[in-house]
Amino acid sequence: MSAPSIPNLLSLRGTGRGRGRGRGGGTPGGTSAATGSSHDSTIQGTDTDAALSRLSAVELGYLSDPFATLFTGGQPNQPHSALPPPRRLPIINRGTYTRTTGIDLLVDSFLSSTDASRTRQILSLGAGTDTRAFRLFSSPSSHTNISYHEIDFPSIIARKQHIIQTSPSTLSSFLYQKPNPSNPLNSPPHPTSSSFSFAFESDGPSRNNNNTLHLHPLDLRSFPECPLSRFDSLSSAHPTLIISECCLCYLAPATTTRILEHLGRLFPQSAMVIYEPILPHDPFGKMMVSNLAARGIVMPTLTEYPTQQSQEERLRAEGGFTEVRSKTIDRVWEDWVSPGEKERIDGLEGGLDEVEEWKLLAGHYLIAWGWRGSGMGKGLDIDVSRGDEGGDGDDTE
Amino acid sequence: MPSLPSSVDLDECIARLYKKELLAESVIEAICAKTKELLMRESNVVHVQAPVTVVGDIHGQFYDLIEIFRIGGWCPDTNYLFLGDYVDRGMFSVETISLLVCLKLRYPDRIHLIRGNHESRGVTQSYGFYTECVRKYNSANIWHHFTDLFDYLTLSVVINNQIFCVHGGLSPSIHSIDQIKVIDRYREIPHEGPMADLVWSDPDPERDEFSLSPRGAGYTFGAQVVQKFLSVNNMVHILRAHQLCQEGYQTLFDDRLSTVWSAPNYCYRCGNMASVLEVDSNGGRFFNIFAAAPENDQVKDMQMPDKMNPGGEPGALPDYFL
Ligand SMILES: C[S@@+](CC[C@H](N)C(=O)[O-])C[C@H]1O[C@@H](n2cnc3c(N)ncnc32)[C@H](O)[C@@H]1O
């Protein structure tokens, strides 16, 4: 069984065909967003997949996330609609747990290493219906002054916004919509203009925690014609954490390079966390590419940044991050999950039988992170502060 | 104990199963009951003579099971020993276990089935067999018939008084093979103890002794454990399955133990090779290596919703982290 070949996007670099699949519909300059709508809906569908994986991990007790059900039902007010939530396999649940807690750890490190009395920005690319912002805002550690920005396709953002606005008490207890005159409440978001802002307050004694969530409908392929700087609520002055949790991998390498460079210019004091698949060329990786292709999913950056090392290099060279680290999900589990927590997780589904398969699967995904600017380093240099050696590109076969 | 009703023609059942057709629930019930009677008479340690072809984990990969018969010979022309893990993970656990049980009942001395850790009520609820039974038969009845039958499967086989065969591995509470014979095996696989260890344990070439297994059940065991077991029991080799090997097999401890893995491209995901181990009448061992059967490509097509298959087959392709 051989994997279908992925178009060599390196050769397209700079020519403006910023699309993953060889439809040839791109217009010069890289704004090819209007074409290939069936591929677009497949990619947007990956958000549902991620949300259902999250729900499976939550329902089985891997993760605690009261917001996971909000975004997985058909109807916003009936989170549990007709279909029962799928139960993912134990290795998938463990992977969802590991990736989520790994990124959470880096987010917490960012927040604790920046001045809590001033605005800190988090910018999540392709956030989908991810619940991290809500978990953060409702967490007992009562974070303050977080300006959380999420970017995704207009249709995904519109749905999320609608669910938030009509959601039951889970959210409304600590969330209200900020008056935002430029965004009339009931009009659907326009692809290139309207963002939505929500303010949050915690239930605790300090009610004015000054946390806000901003939803920006934007097709990331429209960089740099639609630069982020046009979102008023985003400011270059604040320390900023950029997250791409399985998002950049769906874009053409030329596009992601532009995005990283753009972000580098925009946020001089920033850190970035990316979560991506790697190793497309070994037998497992080839099957991964071909199985995903059978579902219509193509990850163009996978061949461009196939290893742990090349992912680190990408953050350094394209993102301009002076310090860069990475860990495969396998290592995140080994190194960052405490023995007690491992035991708890192992007990949830009666032990993990598929140890070899877990190593293979989890060895094919990584979290890479980098930072630059003063005051950012101490918190994010987690390898050093946790005293482990940290693998360097030598995981898996 | 009911006997096989005259309406059930075993050869016809086998012919249908080779074509991947499902048997009626009542037929499965009768066949399981009859096979139970047969298995009940087997010891916890069954002795067989070579030549015999030893097969590792199948995990519902029906097309690859057929490929094994194509490569290694059909039953009963070739003697077979299966080391367990017939169900879970693959798409066709029901077809796979139905066929193997029918073959066992039809040719009891030509084919032997050892119990694997997936032949269990608990594990099959997490790893797919339960769901598949309910999906294909609209009820959990046949899952009950099969999992009740699993309680009767033997735990180990000895080939030519030389080769000790088990699904997982050794146990710190078993020194002599005679200790296996006294285990009360007619039950669900317990969480710990010798019976659990036999189906869950793994060799660890980095160690000498027993230590805790990362699987959360059974142990890992090292070189000294293996040597001691072989010399106490006068055996030359341990043959087991249970662990995915990219090459389809693995030999450890100076050729004292080997793993045979028979699910190529495991879970339609891992891209690995598979093998069966042919033991000749002199005890010589030969790994016959094979790749996934071409029919597996149909599995991929099933996932894509189309006119023939609206909605697509759920779970036809493995999940990834998206
Ligand atoms: C696999 S989902 C991940 C969602 C979320 N980050 C998580 O981890 O749960 C990928 C997300 O990236 C978004 N995405 C992909 N391409 C995009 C683009 N060109 N512009 C905006 N969003 C995009 C998809 O809509 C989807 O929500």
UniProtKB/TrEMBL annotation, chain A:
This is Leucine carboxyl methyltransferase 1. GO terms for biological process: methylation. Keywords: Methyltransferase, S-adenosyl-L-methionine, Transferase. S-adenosyl-L-methionine binds at residues 99, 126, 219-220, 245. The lineage of its organism: Eukaryota, Fungi, Dikarya, Ascomycota, Pezizomycotina. Residues 1-45, 175-201 are annotated as: Disordered. It comes from the Eukaryota. PANTHER family: LEUCINE CARBOXYL METHYLTRANSFERASE, LEUCINE CARBOXYL METHYLTRANSFERASE 1. Residues 32-45 have a biased composition (Polar residues). Belongs to the methyltransferase superfamily. LCMT family. It catalyses: [phosphatase 2A protein]-C-terminal L-leucine + S-adenosyl-L-methionine = [phosphatase 2A protein]-C-terminal L-leucine methyl ester + S-adenosyl-L-homocysteine. One of its GO terms (molecular function) is protein C-terminal leucine carboxyl O-methyltransferase activity. Pfam families: LCM. Its EC number is 2.1.1.233. It is an enzyme of class 2 (transferase). Methylates the carboxyl group of the C-terminal leucine residue of protein phosphatase 2A catalytic subunits to form alpha-leucine ester residues. The keyword Kinase does not apply.
From TrEMBL, chain B:
InterPro entries: Calcineurin-like_PHP (IPR004843), Metallo-depent_PP-like (IPR029052), PPA2-like (IPR047129), Ser/Thr-sp_prot-phosphatase (IPR006186). It catalyses: O-phospho-L-threonyl-[protein] + H2O = L-threonyl-[protein] + phosphate. GO terms for molecular function: metal ion binding; protein serine/threonine phosphatase activity. Transmembrane segments: none annotated. Gene3D superfamilies: 3.60.21.10. Keywords: Hydrolase, Manganese, Metal-binding. Residues 114-119 form the Serine/threonine specific protein phosphatases domain. The keyword Amino-acid biosynthesis does not apply. Its EC number is 3.1.3.16. PANTHER family: SERINE/THREONINE-PROTEIN PHOSPHATASE PP2A-RELATED (PTHR45619). Belongs to the PPP phosphatase family. This is Serine/threonine-protein phosphatase. It comes from Cladorrhinum samala. The lineage of its organism: Eukaryota, Fungi, Dikarya, Ascomycota, Pezizomycotina.
